[in-house]
Amino acid sequence: MLQTFASSISSLLDSRADGHSLPAGLYNREDVFEADVDVFFRKHWICIGLECDVPEPGDANVIEIGNSSLIILRDDDNQIRVVHNVCRHRGSRILDAGSSVVSKLVCPYHQWTYELDGELAYAPHMGADFDKSCKSLRPVSFKSIGGLIYACLSDNPPADIEHLEEVMTERLAPYDIRNTKVAFQTDVVEHGNWKLTMENNRECYHCSANHPELCVSFVDLDFGFDPESLSPEDREQAEQHQALYADKTKSWEADGYPSAAVEQLVDCETNFRTQRLIISGAGESQTPDATAASSKLLGTMTRKDLGDTHLWGHNSWNHFMGDHAVVAIVIPLSADKTLVRTKWLVHKDAVEGVDYDLEKLTNVWVATTDQDAELVARSHAGALDPAYVPGPYSRFSETNLDKFATWYIDRMRAHGY
Questions:
Q1: What contacts 24+ positions apart, CB below 8 Å, involve 232-238?
Q2: pTM (predicted TM-score)
Q3: How confident is the chain (417 residues) per 10-residue block, as mean pLDDT?
Q4: 85 and 228 together in one domain
Q5: Is 218 left (phi over 0), alpha (psi -120 to 50) or beta?
Q6: Do 379 and 248 belong together in one domain?
Q7: Total domains present in the chain
Q8: Are 234 and 382 members of one domain?
Q9: Is 345 helix (H, G, I), strand (E, B) or coil?
């Protein structure tokens, strides 16, 4: 049966035309979804959370990816651990989804008890000759990159995450994300396939018509435009913006803040892109008036004019600004449902109502995420329609979607489909 599915999926992959969206079956078929979870959420690096999700020893956070359940925790030595949420006795889940505080990890079924480093400490009624040393909780390969936790469930994690680690360790250092706190979190279930969620995020072709709140601070021209379609006045404005970008990037980098675009989007295993983006208007933050939401800046930041360091991977997108950060993690739930978990980070010592206003902090991306959920649902409904035919990507505004689709197909084929 698996060979039949693989062959069928292979035919779908083969039918994708360059420069066009994916065939409908790659968005809506259950066998494709199962293959996606195995390939992209088990065998590739994925963002699963943040060090600040578990700020103190004994803090634990459970995240579920397909049938896998992972515990992010901080041990007694203040070190981050990631382990499988599977008791080594008979496989019971140890912790429920979400956050908790524990002194030890105790399986509720038969009370097998583990230290916070995963070592089995107590296994009642197993006999004096039982060897506890080989029954520690199974560890998960992970990396903390500037305070972002990436995990890979494979025994052979892709080595090219080293490039992401090298680039982002330097870029994230001034923000000191490890010493932030989650001021607010939302979980939005989008009624669409995870690839449509990611495609929607990788272009701003739709922004001016659908994201009025975001466009106060976000410049849609940054994501491409067709110069022939612009009026002479708009073309002049676009050219001035491009010149400003070049000047800003040069100035930021001269001041020691890496800013130029770095991307690893095709011919790779670990997919990412980063760039320091200009913030429009007041130029400080992604808020309703583009001014900073928090008076207590992140990390060692002393300036509010350093734009938005954006980073995306194949299951996340992030925006790091002087006053706060927005981190979104994408988790596929089914072929037609996707969880988008968004976290707003502020300095760990920032006080709500004193240093920041929560409504101002969250307004833009709460609205934008809800708007995107509606757009993804519309896209998925269209992909289910028998009339759906893959359409052409804009060569000006959707080049990154074409790269994502190309990468997706290449990685599926690399894993036997």
A1: none
A2: 0.95
A3: 64 96 97 98 98 98 97 98 98 97 98 98 95 96 98 97 98 98 98 98 92 89 70 80 88 97 98 96 97 98 96 98 98 98 98 98 98 98 98 92 98 97
A4: no
A5: beta
A6: yes
A7: 2
A8: yes
A9: strand
